[in-house]
């Protein structure tokens, strides 16, 4: 589900969940535990197995699992994203292919994002579902005012366009992606651990404050919408349209 390898003290976490690394309850639940397990690493690189970083939420599981599954899934999504966002050591995303919806959010939760192929963007509104507070605020932190365009239009971009918005920091050739990510992680890790952790905490504090303020207001409404029969019918139609492309 998440493969972990060590590269001279840098932990490489590789999402490995089927052909496109969809996000389900099990993968999301494993991510915080995996990050805790590499707490002693100098830095972390997050990437995907195969041709995708992550194609986003497993919508089929959402429809099949119904409200009971959704009630577990949404908090797990927020917890996983926060585990990346709050990790005290440097975290570099090596985006090796499509990073859509929740996959885009996980990439945005990393400190630095390199991308080599595929498309990236937030497709939640195209699928007919809203954002919980944590993913919304992480995207706002990552791209500032550009979050409005990404969220409301469900636009997907190639790496060059994403770099223009600040969603991606550098575009790298596919064969060079992992080595470039490891080099960036190694450079970031030269900062003393306590200094890096405090600086990251300071940068993230406004986002964390907004999350703490908005979750009690937003997440119940988000859960209600994700769980509704109307939303699940919209998701069925969205999945059918994808299958027919």
Distance between the termini: 28 Å
User: How many separate structural domains?
Assistant: 1
Query: How do the SSEs run, as a string of H and E?
Result: EEHEEHEEHEEHHHEHEHHH
Mean pLDDT across all residues, rounded?
96
Radius of gyration: 17 Å
Q: Total number of β-strand segments? A: 10
How would you write the strand order of the largest sheet? Answer: 1-2-3-5-7-10
CATH class: Alpha Beta
Number of helices: 10
Shape: globular
The name CATH uses for the topology is 2-enoyl-CoA Hydratase, Chain A, domain 1
State the major sheet.
6 strands, mixed
Low-confidence segments: none
Beta strand %: 15-25%
Summed up:
This protein is an alpha/beta fold and 245 residues long. It is built from ten helices and ten strands. The chain has a six-stranded mixed beta sheet, with helices on both faces. The protein has a four-stranded mixed beta sheet with strand order 4-6-8-9.
């Amino acid at each position: 589900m998440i493969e972990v390898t060590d590269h001279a003290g840098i932990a490489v976490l590789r999402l490995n969940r089927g052909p496109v690394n969809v996000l389900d309850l099990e993968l999301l639940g494993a991510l915080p535990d995996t990050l805790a397990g590499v707490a002693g690493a100098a830095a972390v690189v997050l990437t995907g197995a195969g041709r995708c970083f992550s194609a986003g939420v497993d919508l089929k599981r959402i429809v099949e699992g119904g409200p009971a599954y959704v009630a577990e899934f949404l908090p797990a999504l927020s917890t996983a994203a926060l585990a990346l966002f709050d990790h005290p050591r440097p975290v570099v995303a090596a985006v090796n292919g499509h990073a859509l919806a929740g996959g885009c959010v996980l990439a945005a939760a990393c400190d630095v994002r390199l991308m080599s192929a595929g498309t990236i963007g937030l497709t939640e509104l195209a699928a007919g579902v809203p954002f919980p507070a944590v993913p919304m605020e992480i995207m706002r932190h990552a791209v500032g005012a550009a979050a409005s365009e990404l969220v409301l239009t469900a636009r997907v971009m190639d790496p060059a366009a994403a770099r223009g918005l600040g969603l991606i920091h550098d575009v790298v050739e596919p064969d060079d992606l992992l080595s470039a990510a490891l080099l960036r992680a190694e450079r970031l890790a030269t900062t003393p651990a306590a200094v890096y952790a405090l600086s990251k905490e300071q940068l993230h504090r406004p986002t964390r404050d907004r999350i703490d303020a908005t979750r009690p207001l937003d997440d119940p409404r988000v859960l209600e919408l994700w769980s509704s029969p109307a939303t699940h019918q919209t998701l069925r139609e969205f999945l059918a349209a994808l299958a027919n492309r």
